[in-house]
Structure formats: structure tokens, C-alpha cells
Amino acid sequence: MSVQPLLQQPDRLKARLREVPPEPGCYLMRDGEDRILYIGKAKMLRNRVRSYFQSGSGHGHSPRIRLMVRQVVEIEFIVTDSEAEALALEANLIKQNQPHFNVLLKDDKKYPYLCITWSEPYPRIFITRRRRFRSPLDRFYGPYVDVGLLRRTLALVKRVFPLRQRPQPLYKDRTCLNYNIGRCPGVCQEKISSEDYHRTLRQVAMVFQGRNEELLELLQEQMERYAERLDFESAARVRDQIQGLDTLTADQKMSLGDSSVSRDVIALAADGRVAAVQLFQMRAGKLVGRLGFTANAEGTPAAEEGTGGDLPPSSERREALGRILQTVIEEHYSQVEGVEIPPELLVQHPLPQQALIEEWLSELRGRRVKLAVPQRQQKADLIGLVVRNASYELQRAQRASEQNLLATEDLAQLLELASAPRRIEGFDISHIQGSDAVASQVVFVDGLPAKQHYRKYKIRSSAVRAGHSDDFMSMAEVIRRRFRRWAQAKAEGADLRELRRAAGTALHTGGLNDWPDVVMIDGGKGQLSAVMEALRELNLDQELVVCSLAKQREEVFVPGAREPLESEPDQLGVQLLRRLRDEAHRFAVSFHRQQRGERMTRSRLSDIPGLGPKRIRELLSHFRSIDAIQLASVEALAAAPGMGPALARQVWDYFHPSADEHIDDRPSADEPVTLAAEDADLATRLEPVR
Prior knowledge:
Helices cover 43% and strands 15% of the residues. By secondary structure, it is an alpha+beta fold.
């Protein structure tokens, strides 16, 4: 990624704006450190994004937006089917990423959610605009872009299903009118068991998960069973529910359906040379992440001319595309933790070894993983949406592929390689005078960043500490850790050439499918010498192609040479190494800042006697912030995982050194507590939703 803002690169800006499609969707503005500056939505992406950069248009923007535009280095977009879906997606992305320049949706006050308090014996169902910290069993559905429609939907649901109508009983010893007219099952007097009421709520939840058709089928079967038993009164009640759901389905538009299932959706678009693969990560019905991959598609049968995408591809082409999808799946999921694998994967085309991939993913996850090729209804629509986004990425990759090919060929000539390198890895170190030292590993495949292969390292050497840094030792440590498995395989007699030849699959290489064609070190001859010494210890110094790039003059060094290679800073191969170096630096600095922030957060709790690293993690996970722990009562602290009354008292005393020693002198959990004005907002986040 270039670190210069787009406003300083007019040609690149024009080219990027031409790539933005005239369709509804969301756009993401990123800065030189790959941080998301701003997320927006538009009915027509091209016009909206262009408006930020047109000459003279800046005068109509606020100072905040003008400041943001001056920092934009990259623009990404996600295409949706409608403006309403773009609006819901915008809310999800802003709450997930918290961009600095978005001020409207950060606090969750704009779009409403529907909450069901599953943790209660008789759950409540209500609308809220704030997703406050509640029991893990409680669920939020949404966000919904039309609060009026949501209120009408909830009112209709309460007419169709007998539900709890009031947060508190109207009478202590008898039911109210709602029970007499069939609107409430008598929750206040426990006329219905908790299990039966939960069963009714599960049907209601299906409405807000977008599973109306599934619910209608269940109710239809239930009505038929009642009719067979001649229980016509119950059958009529279910019939009325079906009719009410038909009315609801006719005018209801959910943001994203089926919020109970997490899945990854994988699809591609390909020409005769390159394939652009998109992986959408859907968690609880929301798009929380998107990964992009490029793959070699040479030899893939071309699409039929004149079909316009309306006709399905031939069986031969479908098989070839399925092989590409399987390769990407193997590469991606072999590098992630098992908990990151969702229970369901939707793929565009059948995989050559679909049953084997299912078994492999299930083994990695520790639970069953289902692989499906959807053909109709909502899941097929998801595939179609991912395909459209992949098509736009393919157009961009087609324009960049020729330039990247020239760059990799120039790098091969510079380093005297037999062929153009496909996988290039870059390494960098980041610290402040030795404190919080970390390293980054970034990967470019065919000249493009492959972020699914990025890795982070914490420097473990005890010699690297606050006040004492050693970049040479740190770089050598990272290289030893990166190639330790390959060195072990070689020591055990494995044929590295054969492993590299079979690197396209993770199923038959024991996970050793990440051999780089070129390794680039950020630094000069000193860092390069330290790395080569580490590789000699691993007996891999003759196997790897290693170079370093010095910052001052953009000079390229190789092992065994006193002088840098003859090169020009602006030649394509050196520019590729510079992009790799800048990306490695950005990734290392971001990780260092994260580690430094976590250390500063943990340090206050580390001073409390009896709190070890595990209890600190549990406390932060439970309360979400130091401020929340400071505001919590002794009773709330004692209820946290891993805590007890004595330790809770110690924590409370640490944050309140001048307070009275007796708990009884303070208000109880049921009494009001007066807080300072600056703590009022945090206190509302800790309160239950009424």
C-alpha cells in the first residue's frame, strides 16, 4: 500500500475513482497505516466517493471531512443489493471498527435493536437503542434501519403470539385484562411454565432472525396435528398465527437474515489468468469481516461468450473454479485457530474433495463443519452478493496484474532468480528503546498483499527489554521461529523441494505450505548478517533467497556482497520491495502500539495484591474497562469470574483508598448511587436495560 495520500497522487486517484461502481453499498477510507478513517454508505457509490475529491467540492464539506480527505490513502467498497442493506451494513461496520471520523453511529444511539432477555425465567422483549452489557444469554437482534417498522412489527408479533405485555405485573394476586383476551399467557401469576414460555419466545425469535418461512412450516405442521386430533380450537389459534405472519412477511425487510448462525461465504470471479476470491465472514447474521485473495487461474476454461452471466458455467469450468476455491480454503483455514472456523461454509462451486475438506475443517475446529453449495433462496443470494464484489476486485486485479508481473520479473532479474517470485515475505521490528518489542511478517503474493498470511511476533529474548534494544538479535529470533518447522522437517529427512512443489495444498504437506520465494529484511548489512547466521543454525542458509532493503538510499543488499546491488530507487523491482517494506513497518508499528496500550492498561491492576495475569484477564473480559472496574461495587466485583469477597474487597479498596472500611456504610445494590457527571455515561452502560 502506498503511504502517500491520494490527493498527492492525481493519476492514482483518478484510476481508483474509475474502479468504484455505480451501485449501492458502503465505502471505507483508509490512511497510510491501514487504519479505517471513515465508513459511509451511498445509493450510488461512484458519485458519492467522487464528491469527496472533486475540485471545489471541499468547500461544501465540514472541516472534519476535509481533514479526513487529506489523509485518505486507499478506498475500499462493499456492494449491496439496496440502499437499505447498505444502511444496515454501515451501522454494523462502524460499530465493529469504530472509525475516528465517524461520529453518528459510534454510540449506538441512531439505530434500534430488539432485545430478548433469555437469562430470565420469563424473558422480556423490547426495543432499545443501546446494546448494554447484560447476561451472555441475552440476545440483541438488529440493527434495524426503520424504527417505525420495527415498532409495528413488534406490535403485530405481540398480537399473533401470547407474550408478556408488561415489564412489571399490574396486580399482585390476579391476572390483568391481557390474560383474559388471550394477549398474555399469565406470566405474572405463572399460568404458563417457564419452559413453555421459552418455547413460544423461540418461535418469536425466528421472526427477527429472518426465518419466517421456516417458522411458517413449523406452524403449518402444528396446525395439521391439532386438526388430526380434532382439537379445532388450538388449530384455529395456530391458523391465526400463520395469517398474522403472512401479513408480517409481506411488508417486513430484515437487515441480514438468520442471526443465529455464523458462516463464511466464499465465491470468486476469474478470467484466463487470475481469479479474485472474496471471503465474507458472517457472524450472528452480520458481516463482520471480508478477506480478499488472488489466485492463478491460468488454464481455466474461459466463460462462454454471450451468456452475460445468465447461464451457468460449463462443467469443466465449474470443476476448475472449484479447484481454485479449494486451494484458497486450504491456504486460509490452515493458518487460523480452530475457534475461528464457523460451523458452516457456503461456497460458489462444488469442491473436488468436498467430503475430505469437510472432515479436515471439522477436525481443526473440534466440531462438525458443514460445506454447502446453495442453489436457491437467501443463501444463494449471499453467494450472488459475494460474486458481485469479487467481480469488481477482479477488474481491479486485471488492471494491476500486468504491472505486478513486470515488477516481479524485474525483481527476479535483480536477484538473479530463475523465475519470477510468487510469494515474497517481509520482516520488520518495532519497539521504543527496547520496550514492548515486536516483529511483523507480511506476505505479498503475485505482487499484492495477502493479509491472511500476515503474522505477528512478540520478542521473547530477555536481553531485549526496556532501556536495552537489539534489532539484530530480535530479527534473528523471528527468523528462527518462522522457519523452525521447515528446519525440523529437513533434519528428519524430508525433501524440501518436494514439499515446495506440493505447497498448493495444506492437506498433504503437514501444514508446510508457506515456503517463500524471497525473504526481505528491513535494514542494512547488519540485520542481513544476523538473519543469515540464524539460517545457518537451521541449515537453511542455502535454501532461501534473502535480501535486505536499507532505508536511507533504498539500497538492496544480498548475502556475501559488500556493496549493494546496482539498482535504481524507481525501478519496478525495487518499488515492489519498498511497498513490502512499508507494509511490514506499518504492521509492526500497529502491533507495537496495541501491545503498549494493553501493558499500560494492565499495569494498574497488576499493582493489586492477589491479582495475577489470569484474574486480570477475567476481570477485563467481564467489566470491559478499568473505569468500569473502578465504578463497580464490592458485590459486583465478587460476582465476577475468579473473584471472591476478600479479593473483591482488596480491589475496591485499591480504587477507593479514602473510603470507609465498612461495606454496610455504603448504599446497597438496590439503592441509588450518586456519580460524578463524567462517570454518568459509563454508569448507564453498566445498568440493566429497564
